[in-house]
Design a protein that fits this description.
9 strands, globular
Length: 319
């Protein structure tokens, strides 16, 4: 019986793919208990060949070749092909700690969980820094809404969850394709559908950041694309407000998204700031709300924008 399906989108990562795949093979599950689904998303380097070589050598690895659909499209392909009771996502330039999946699967089985959140650390310049994606320790299963409001921080990562596959299929929880903020868009939909959620303090996921990945768009067109994608998520979250009983996190997340939009506007479209402010307020009316477990700097930004979006734009334009 396949207990776990690990879905790995693969695109132009020939330098890092070996590390990722080897970390997934060094797990304390039997080969017939889990599968590694490598979704070659139209990669034009040596990745397709590498994937086929892995599959020929290791029986728990299967490969799907497809034309390029982006990260969301590759994950969606993996979800549809998966056979495991649970699913995890791993990006192909990242890697996981050895012998960590078995305890997660056993906990999820024992507690009959829809989702189990685990720990992540940032790897940059060979230094490791734990990243707080949730706060507190959930030792008794709670609903996804309770988890969001009490424990979820501003950082949205799909890769820090073990997820019951049927939950995704039953609720059509596929990733929205064609946007930059696929995790931010997907995570609340997923968690609000979950009935039993717990956490594990096991450090599992290594999120690798490269010097050349700390970059920003260089064209006005791409900055506008970032604004548009933020607005897409803002609209969705605002619609979700009508469907949940206690939308504390949604209000705070919307505030964070709005400060992100206003920051881009302040830096690149300052002359148009008033029209953007009006457009945002038409989607989500002020005042903005912060949340205690959001990072301190994030809450400061929200409070300034709540006081005055014009003042926020003025400050960010000159800082």
């Amino acid at each position: 019986m396949i207990l776990l399906s690990v879905i790995v989108p693969v695109f132009r990562v020939e330098k890092y793919l070996d590390r990722c795949v080897m970390s997934l093979l060094h797990q304390d599950l039997n080969a017939d208990e889990y599968e590694i689904i490598l979704v070659d998303d139209g990669s034009d380097d040596t990745c397709p060949q590498k994937c086929d070589e892995y599959a020929a050598q290791y029986k728990q690895i299967q490969v799907i070749h497809q034309s390029n659909k982006g990260l969301s499209g590759a994950r969606n392909t993996g979800i549809k092909a998966a056979k495991g009771k649970y699913i995890c996502f791993v990006d192909s330039d990242d890697y996981v700690e050895p012998n960590t999946y078995s305890s997660l699967v056993r906990q999820a089985q024992k507690e009959q969980l829809d989702a189990l959140a685990f720990r992540l650390q940032l790897i940059f310049n060979n230094k490791k820094q734990p990243i707080e994606t949730f706060t507190g320790d959930v030792q008794s299963a709670c609903t996804g809404e309770e988890f969001i409001n009490r424990h979820l921080s501003v950082r949205c990562f799909s890769v820090v969850y073990l997820i019951r596959r049927e939950l995704l299929l039953e609720n059509n929880l596929f990733f929205k394709e064609g946007i930059f903020y696929e995790d931010v868009e997907w995570l609340p939909r997923f968690l609000y559908s979950a009935k039993r959620v717990m956490t594990s303090n096991t450090m599992v996921y290594n999120y690798v950041q490269f010097a050349n990945s700390i970059t920003h768009p260089t064209t006005q067109e791409r900055w506008k694309r970032l604004i548009a994608d933020n607005i897409t998520v803002l609209r969705q979250n605002t619609a979700l407000l009508q469907t949940v009983s206690n939308p504390i996190w949604l209000h705070a997340m919307n505030a964070s998204i709005i400060t992100s939009i206003l920051t881009i506007v302040s830096k690149h479209f300052y002359a148009e700031r008033q029209s953007y402010i009006i457009s945002i307020q038409e989607i989500y009316p002020y005042p903005l709300q912060s949340k205690a477990n959001f990072p301190f700097a994030e809450n400061i930004k929200i409070r300034i924008a709540r006081l005055s979006p014009k003042l926020y734009c003025f400050i960010r334009h000159y800082l």
